[in-house]
Write a sequence for this structure.
């Protein structure tokens, strides 16, 4: 999701910082992420780290509050530098439309290229199109097909939203940012931080070299297991990608329903056992009372 510095746009350059829009000379040289991560920054910045935490919290609150009512969604990643007539952009547009028709919202980084194509496909198919932008020195702003957009200062807050509100990742050809999202998703699935989270790679020719290296080098040298290679679905077929996501979604729903049903049955059984125990105790108490009453009456008759 690297934005293309050479991409033309109408109007003056602008920078978004949360709800604030800056243009022309008002645009600072650095970004909030740069200042946060710069260990060589002047002492006054280090002294303000505790205050910066409040801004970080506010980004999480804004993201959670805005996205909490989303329908089931899929995050789509790919290059911002891809041209509209490229194979990956055409594929992304068809993917966005297919996901929307299957009932999924589409979440992207909100930029141009593959992201814009996926947002466009979803919007034109009547689906919900979401863009999660980021403050960059060469920011392009959210594309015109975004229905719900959030501009983040910090990558880690933005990355959390991509995972938290998505049922799957679909990764199309892209650069460093795309690779970052891909391997983060694979790590989360591998370490079971997320479960039943499909990761789909689209563009088999583009990914072939990486997959060969993962199999012949990473796996061969024991850095990953053969099962880790099965965490990815690789395809050029949009329908296959959507079907893979929907099947995983249905399987997880069935598992959750079985777990809930099992919990309900265990609760009902425990309630029945408690009721039976209470009834047995009550019968025992009634029997004891009757026996005590009978003994008392017998004693009175004997004295008489």
């Amino acid at each position: 999701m690297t934005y293309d510095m050479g991409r033309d746009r109408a109007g003056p350059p602008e920078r978004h910082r949360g709800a604030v829009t800056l243009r022309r000379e008002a645009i600072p040289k650095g970004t909030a992420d740069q200042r946060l991560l710069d260990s060589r920054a002047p002492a006054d910045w280090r002294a303000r780290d505790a205050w910066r935490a409040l801004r970080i919290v506010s980004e999480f609150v804004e993201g959670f509050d805005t996205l909490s009512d989303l329908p089931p969604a899929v995050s789509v990643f790919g290059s911002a530098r891809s041209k509209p007539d490229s194979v990956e952009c055409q594929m992304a547009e068809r993917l966005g439309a297919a996901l929307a028709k299957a009932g999924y919202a589409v979440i992207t980084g909100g930029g141009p290229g593959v992201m814009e194509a996926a947002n466009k496909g979803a919007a034109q198919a009547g689906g919900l199109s979401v863009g999660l932008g980021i403050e960059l020195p060469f920011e392009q702003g959210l594309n015109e097909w975004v229905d719900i957009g959030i501009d983040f200062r910090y990558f880690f807050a933005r990355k959390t939203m991509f995972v938290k509100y998505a049922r799957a990742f679909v990764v199309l050809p892209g650069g460093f940012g795309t690779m970052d999202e891909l391997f983060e998703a694979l790590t989360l699935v591998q370490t079971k931080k997320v479960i039943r989270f499909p990761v789909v790679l689209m563009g088999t020719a583009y990914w072939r070299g990486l997959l060969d290296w993962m199999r012949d080098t990473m796996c061969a040298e024991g850095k990953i297991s053969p099962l880790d290679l099965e965490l990815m679905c690789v395809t050029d077929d949009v329908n296959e990608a959507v079907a893979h996501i929907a099947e995983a979604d249905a399987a997880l729903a069935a598992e959750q329903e079985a777990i809930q049903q099992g919990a309900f049955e265990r609760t009902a059984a425990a309630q029945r056992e408690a009721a039976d125990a209470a009834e047995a105790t009550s019968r025992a108490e009634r029997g004891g009372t009757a026996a005590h009453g009978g003994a008392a009456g017998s004693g009175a008759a004997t004295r008489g």
In short: The chain has nine helices and nine strands. Residues 1-9 have pLDDT under 50 and may be disordered.
